[in-house]
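3.2 Worked example (two chains)
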Amino acid sequence: MARIDARGPAEDVVTPAGAQTGQVAATSAGTPTGQAGAPGGLRTRSRGGIRGREGTAGWLFVAPMVIILGLFLVIPIGMALWVSFTNWQGNSNPFAVGQGTDVVGLKNYTDLFARDGLTRDNFMQSIGNTFYYVLLVVPLQTVLALALALLVNSARLRGRGFFRTAFYFPSVTSSIAIATVFLFLFSNTGVVNAFLGFFGIDGPQWFNDSRGLLHLAFNAVGVDNPDWAQGQILGRSLWDWLSGPSVAMFVVIFLVIWTTSGTFMLMFIAALQDLPVEVEEAAALDGTTGWQKLRHVTLPMIRPALFLVITLGLIGTWQVFDQIYVMGKGAPAGTTLSPAFLSYQQSFGNFRYGSGAAMAFVVFLIIIVLTRVQRYVLTDKDERKPLFGLGGRK
């Protein structure tokens, strides 16, 4: 036998021919059939079995919901988009072109922005009303919901279950019922004005006062419709755009904040309870104050929940309808008019379904733009994608 010296070079090692034959035989016997290197050639393993049928089973489970969403959501949206390009008045088949329905192209959209008339005046007023409505409701309801969540999530608070139920109860109550109650509370002889009367304050006529809050503030310092505010923007003067929410709209804002904060409170509670205990303990050991912990630890870690709350708030406020319908239908003087209610009124009141559908899709685009902007703002700088671009970092 050849002696192998561990200190010698590799080429000095000689393997006997019999050993080589045994190794080849062992390798051939140990190679599974159908894999690379096997004598029988290459073969593809079949993808059957339980794992191979998971995709089919998944589609079978979601098929009912896909069908329901397609029938009652996707198809109606497509039909409404088609109607927005026609002059359909509801008395014929909207798809029967030339038989009571004519295609007018972008006319319904251009009438909202470029054509003088009542349609543009009402739509722009509704956009101005909703702008101030969103500007006040979304931040206030988000801050209130977070404050309530921090309060009821505190271990030092007794009866946390009771307070969670009490704060959430307005959110599950009918919005129509609450709006009706508010009509009585804020009437001229209601409880609110009676309470203000104890302090010698003559309460306003809440649902009849069309004055804007910013106009009242300007008047308090002696500014009333100055010359610099006479310029026209989309059919309205700058002074009209700067009116602010009316006294009547302020009641709607107060109602909506009170009724929606409970739902968003639950979302924040779920996010707070999912925070790692170790992070909070580390912050306490570092000697952080309550405000520092909230700003530098809690808020960054619940950013997904914050994004969800703000997004849902934006969508809900731009679609406000119930409260407007019950509390005056846009009165007084159109200062509580919203695009959603105006779209309904234009379609089912004036039978101008094309114009009403166009209003709805304009609001839809506004919601998309605002959602994209607030997502850009809440995203870390190193993870941001182009604001309205299709590309970006992966």
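3.2.1 Second chain
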Amino acid sequence: MISHHHSNNNSANQSSISLNEIQNNNDTHSHFPNSKSNSIESLNSEKQKKLLQKRKSNNSSTKSLNTSVNTKNLWNLCKIEKEKEKKDTNKVELNDIGIESSIFLAGSSEGGKSTLISNIFDKNSSNNVSSNTLLLDYTYRHNNRTKGLNSLKDTIHIWELANGIMFKEFLKIPINEHNINNAVVVIVLDLSKPENIIDEYKEIIEIVNTRVDGLLKSLEKRGSRRPKALTLYSWKKYGNEHPDKEFIHPTIIPSIIVGSKYDKFKNYESEAKKFICKMLRYIAHINGSSLIFYNQNDEAMAQKCKQMLFHYIYRHEAPSNLTDHNKPILVMAGTDSLNSIGLPPNCNATNPQRLSLIDWTNIYETFFKKENKTKNFSIDLSKFPEPIIDNLKIEKDEEYLKYCQKNEKEANEKLKLGNISSSGNSPSEERKFGNIYSRSRAAGLATY
């Protein structure tokens, strides 16, 4: 009875506790202290469990979010890159357009010009190029380049002049105002015929300089700022404190002297090799040309030539110098000096800066005498009269003259538009009128 009565009291107490808790907390304190403490403990434990469950659920959700972020990380990066490119209009245009550059190739007859280009750009081709260049040959190559998220296809225009210096005037044809900003002149000299290489180099570089000087004067008359910028750029590789600055006349278009047929040259006597190397270093130094020796059967030499060529076109890293005459010479323009070149043999002078190009040439010609072969390629057509053919020739000459005048007129109109844009527009706006990239803009485009 007691226990039963106790249980009834407990149930009544429990109901009264719940009512009293709702109505008055103080009453429950006084009448049922033990049960209240138990209920508070149970409530606290339940709250703790709920908190733990919430923490676990939050941790699991954050983990799932992190994994989703990680899976979408690549796309987020792509979006960020694209947004940056949209903000920088110049960067977008540079990334979206491939570079067009030009190579003007000339030099010794049968010196290996075509083979050099084939070895540099055509990896799967054989070393022997069967087709001979007739006069002025044009080809092009594509070079794939990656910049950021874009894959670009650059175009390299290659103009090759045949037959040595016989038709040197034709080298002026491909050199124009649109391509001098990003072009390279490559002069291939046959080292197996050292008696001819100095004259060949001088005549080719003179043609190039004459043509470029005429273009710059024409640009200056129209108020273009390019001539000054290109001239400053040609001096940039020498710096402000070069000791030979007053003796140097660098070409506006970067030039490279390639001494071909090194396999025959390396068998020369040591003194002859030393003098040839000094002479080539001298003419390269005073004209702002780079110098490299090359053998068509040596893949490493072909790679060095390519590295030097791409240094000027795409700002590729320049190869390191090698000035030992017993090894293949490689000297970058702006890194040599008259003191390091030294004096030619049998010379009474004590200061290399006192010697001129004429002095060097006279001493060189005493060592390597020229062949006295006078070839007359002119033909007196009056001895062979052909009225029909002569009339056709006159017609074709007139057509050619009209064609040249038309091209010149179109080029002048384009240049006028370019000058209007360059006078007050931004670089991005100038590009809309067809202006070629400057070397300063092309400098940061290559990632090799």
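3.3 Remarks
Residues 33-71 form the longest helix (39 residues).
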